[in-house]
Amino acid sequence: MTRWVPARIAIVVAFVLGVVGSAAPAKAEQIDFDKATIAQLNAAFDAGTLTAEKLVEMCLERIKAFDRDGPKLHAIISLNPNALEIARALDAERKTKGPRSPLHGIPVIFKDNIDTVDMPTTGGSVLLEGSMAPDDAFLVKKLRDGGAIILAKVNLGEFANGSQSSMGGQSLNPHDLARTPAGSSGGTGVGIAAGYAPLGLGTDTGGSVRGPSSVNGIVGLKPTHGLISRDGIIPLALSLDTGGPMARSVYDVAVSLGVMAGVDRADPATKKSEGKFHKDYTQFLKTGALKGARIGVARDFTGADPDVDWVFEAALKAMEKAGATLVEVRYPKWFLDSSRRAVYTLFPPEFRAQIGDYLQTTAPQYPKSIEDLIERSYEYTSMGKDGAGPNPYRWAFFEERDIAHGTMTDPGYLALRDYYMPMTTAMVEGMFAKDKLDAIVYPTNMQRPDLIASPPGVAIPTATSPTGIANLTGFPDLVVPAGFTTDDLPVTISFFGTAFSEPKLLALGYSFEQITHALRRPVNAPALPGGKIDLPER
Which of 165, 185, 208, 377 is catalytic? Predict the structure, then answer.
């Protein structure tokens, strides 16, 4: 296995500079570990001021303080009982062989619809409680091979739909406990915002990485369809699905993407990424990337919340001041009127078929089809332990949507898949080409997060969906914190690009992040005593 060596090179360079020239006086720095980037954590590893074991202990302390105690954020479904043992082994390996990758010793939390061979994968459903996957998902294997530590499986909208589950109940937004953390990767969003781990993985079918990243005030990426393998992820709709990293900085998203990306024979969609993915996306991060960039401004997604609009306008002014050229863009009204319904019409027929394929990989005692899921759901009518209990909102969809919306052979479905999606792709590519755009920006969420107490209903959403466009095209979409509402709720901006433009989006997002610094620790997940790390002297 190729070893990761930039840190060693940096030490040599620093030594040479110290010999040939006069250096500034060394200065030590302390930082709260839940504010540190993965680059800073690696610097502390290299300096000997931090170990993977200590880092895992600090993560577990925050989980203990905030998840079932304190504000009871309820993001965790299961913890890896071997995390500390794995961390100690990785610390020993670092000493003898060096780090495997920049993620060596870094704890990661996973949405519980991503297969892990040593922990249950439930999809957030009591219908799959205790289900053990036959092997790791491809992206899990890549992360393990890179030395990452699988710390926990976290809550989600059940079967990647909605914002709560029958296994984990309702997670709470650490910025405001009365408001939703969004879905379906809500547990990952909560866990990263609250400092449970430096890195998290979610999945995205119509906005499920980006919504939770936005309302929890963190960075999230929906990659290009095919850049990350979906093998071992419980499907919602494979024509739209992708995994995606969530973290507290653009750097952390970039460094994790390089470890996970690659062609997987078990997922034919990844063939599209051949020759187009990179092993190191951090090389593209430049503070001046906005200078000279042409940024499309999608005001179609404003007007719903004056606070969100104000933050968006402030973000645009910051980009303009950094040297970007802003270009107004508009989507056709007929497209805006139909795009969200298209997403919600595409995935029920796919889920109906594809969930059956996944269920065939589970042990004999678990349901094997959507019909089995429906039948089994009626057996759960009372509350279980630790927040588990019935989830009528999601279970009603089994019949009202997933069955009622037909099959993958229906003409309506085929028209959307074979004509509407390619048409959307061609239209968006045309918008980029016409104005020579590097990205289109928009407020990720048009308004602040809903109150959890708001009745969810079961109707198919028909309002405009800015995030769904990235799924219909398969294009990448990067979410970066931009500011806060008057009631201290996070607002983010999305950088949307064309296929495999992650290097450009990450560069633009990083440049924006460095001039705005809009990340804030949630009020309901404060710093804990002893939660600091020493960075090397500089």
Answer: 208
CATH of the domain at 181: 3.90.1300.10
Q: Give residue-wise pLDDT tens across range 63-104.
A: 999 999 999 999 999 999 999 999 999 999 999 999 999 999
- Is residue 365 one of the residues assigned to a domain? yes
Q: Is 111 a catalytic residue?
A: yes
CB distance 237 to 346 below 8 Å: yes
Domain that holds residue 273: 30-535
- Give CA–CA dist 200/189, Å, rounded: 8
Residue tagged active-site, from 111, 141, 142, 222: 111
Q: Exposure string (b/e) for 426-455, b if CB count within 10 Å is 16 or more?
A: eebeebbeebebbbbbbbbbbbbbeebeee
Please answer whether residues 87 and 53 qualify as being in contact, where contact means their C-beta atoms are separated by less than 8 angstroms: yes
465 catalytically annotated: no
E strands in 445-484: 477-484
Q: CA 218, CA 492: separation in Å to the nearest integer?
A: 8
Q: Please state the pTM of the whole predicted model.
A: 0.94
101 part of the active site = no
Question: Number of helices and strands (H, E) in the chain?
Answer: 16, 15
Tokens representing 321 are 């001041």
Q: From the candidates 184, 229, 339, 501, which is the catalytic residue?
A: 184
DSSP-assigned states of every residue in 295-315: EEEEGGG-SS-HHHHHHHHHH
**Region 422-435 average pLDDT:** 98
* Domains identified in the chain, total number: 1
Q: How far apart are CA 224 and CA 425, in angstroms?
A: 12
Query: Which residues, at least 6 apart from 418, have a Cβ–Cβ distance to it below 8 Å?
Result: none
Give me the helices (H) in 322-459, please: 333-359, 370-377, 392-397, 411-415, 421-434
Q: Given 3-state DSSP classes, what are the helix, strand and coil percentages for the chain, each rounded to the nearest 5?
A: 40, 15, 45
